[in-house]
Amino acid sequence: MLINFSVVSEGLAKTYDDADCIVNVERNRRYTFRQYHSLTNRIVNMMLSRLDLRRSDVWLTILHNDSLSLLGFFTAYKGEACACYTNTTDTLETQARQIDLVRPKVAFIEAELLGTHYALLKERGLTIVCMDPPPPGFPDVLHFWTLLEGISDANPDVLHDAHKDCLIMRFTGGTTGAAKAVMYSVDNFMASKDLHYASGDTVPLRGARLLHFGLISHASGIVFFPILFRGGCTITMNDRSLATWCRTVEREKATATLMVPSMLYRLLEAPEARGHDLSSLQTIYYGASPMSPARIKQLRERFGEVFVQIYAASEHAGAAVSMSKDEHQPDRNGDESHLASAGRIVPGVELLIVDRQGRRVPDGQDGEIWMRSRAICLGYLNAPEKTAEEFCDGYWKSGDYGRIDANGYVYVLDRVKDTILCNERNVYPSLVEAALSSHPSVLMAAVVGIADPDCGEYVHAEVVLRPGESVDLDELQAFLAPRVS
Predict the structure, then answer these.
(1) List of residues 6+ apart from 250 with CB closer than 8 A
(2) Is residue 175 pLDDT above 70, yes or no?
(3) Residue 269 burial by CB count (10 A; 0-12/13-18/19+): exposed, middle or buried?
(4) Distance between CA atoms of 321 and 319, rounded to whole angstroms?
(5) If you write DSSP's letter for every residue of 402-414 in order, what string do you get?
(6) How far apart are alpha carbons 80 and 156 in whole angstroms?
(7) Could you count the other beta carbons within 10 Å of the beta carbon of residue 382?
């Protein structure tokens, strides 16, 4: 199927007109839907006419959230060349490997990063475009806004195969091995939007104001399309401090945000969260790692029934499993054990639990989670063997151990590679971490396996206590005894 994404964007501009679309906190930029459509058209036309970015070319971003919101999905899907998003938090060594893998023609970068990245980018022969006026001492660096001067805002009218053309790449695998460039089509993120709408909590029409606390180039990008396609506003912040987040929620009347569990644990303790008005928040999405049920209960008591869990991945760019706000409640028998799950399968996703031979196992048994939907990526760039290893008949092999209970709740037990084999039994670190984190003196915990000649691996935990709290080893062990085998 062919798609002209500039026409899709034009339709959104006509539908939502002068409603807030993009707000950049640090640079104090605000764009309505009409302005955002016009600006992203100009950016693409500039890429074509002044940077000669054509089909089969790649352009790279090393940007904070506010700049990335201008060069994100809409810009990528309107143009010819493929966009590749790296994180500003990646090391220079990691980014050098990423550049060698994707071979970009142009790099868009923040001015503050020129000091560390200029030599690398010049050595690789890239054209460098700085988002702010480049400081002295960096010859040949172009200025983004100067390049846009005199550029038309007419629709680029570039046609793509919505299912086959790779127009976006992001990196994954850095924590478990060499980074892989994940390839996406237009339909992958259109599917992400559709799956979001199919889950239990729909985005209100024209009413959402979502604050991106995490990186749009990473997990937070999963909610970019669902918000904008419902006429909502996406608010970006670059500063990752909770103080800035609290101030921004209060000032911008943010109704939604996305956080990882460790950040929510910090939010429980943060004095800033009590010093600002956060009452506008209606939805807090969370994911990326399991959440302790005890902490979920504390968060609900503190912030209300606003939590929605999402289980997704770089390879599956939409929610595969979700736990709605209603599902965060005890069931009709008062049971809350399902809070240890990731929720239920989102309608439209095929999700299986399989054994080591790829055979489906009955509900209630542990196995690897496989998933398939329109949101599954196109594979990995220049890695056919890795793609063949991790995909089967359109399913992505997640590498997560899981199970499905009789009520349809999916439990993500742990990464297959992280599972500890102790006395020939699987021990899931996430379950031990959740048990430790339920102790009233514990803020968070991390569990790993350490090689042992007698039992294979023993279970080792690192524990961070709440400020002012103390607990000894015997007490923690006694606390764990009835909670883990």
Answers:
(1) 276, 277, 278, 280
(2) no
(3) exposed
(4) 6
(5) EEE-TTSEEEEEE
(6) 9
(7) 13
Task: Report d(CA 208, CA 202) in Å as an integer.
Answer: 10
Cα atoms in the 13 Å half-sphere on the side-chain side of 291: 33
Angle, vertex CA 417, rays to CA 411 and CA 423, nearest 5: 85
Q: What single-letter amino acid sits at 123? A: E
d(CA 449, CA 21): 46
User: SS3 of 344, please?
Assistant: strand
pLDDT of 416 reads: 64
DSSP class of residue 145 equals H
Distance CA 471, CA 348 (A): 47
Residue 466 Ramachandran class (φ > 0 left, ψ -120 to 50 alpha, else beta): beta
**456 phi and psi, to 5 degrees?**
95, -65
User: Which residues does 300 contact at the CB level (< 8 Å), separation at least 6?
Assistant: 307, 328
Q: Whole-angstrom Cα distance, residue 127 to residue 274?
A: 47
The CA-based dihedral angle spanning residues 180, 185, 187, 192, taken in that order and rounded to the nearest 10 degrees: 30
Mean pLDDT of 477-484: 83
Residue 385 has pLDDT above 70, yes or no: yes
Q: What are phi and psi of 273, to 5 degrees?
A: -70, -20
Give the C-alpha separation, 26 to 135, whole Å: 19
Q: Which residue has the tokens 């289980």?
A: 311
Residue 362 CB-half CA count within 13 A: 2
Return the H-helix or E-strand segment holding 258.
strand 256-259
First to last CA, the chain: 53
DSSP, collapsed to helix, strand or coil, labels residue 202 as coil
**Cα within 13 Å of Cα(370), Cβ side:** 20
Residue-level pLDDT at 424: 63
DSSP codes joined into one string, 111-122? GGGHHHHHHHHH
State the Cα–Cα distance between residues 186 and 159, nearest whole angstrom: 11
Mean pLDDT of the chain: 92
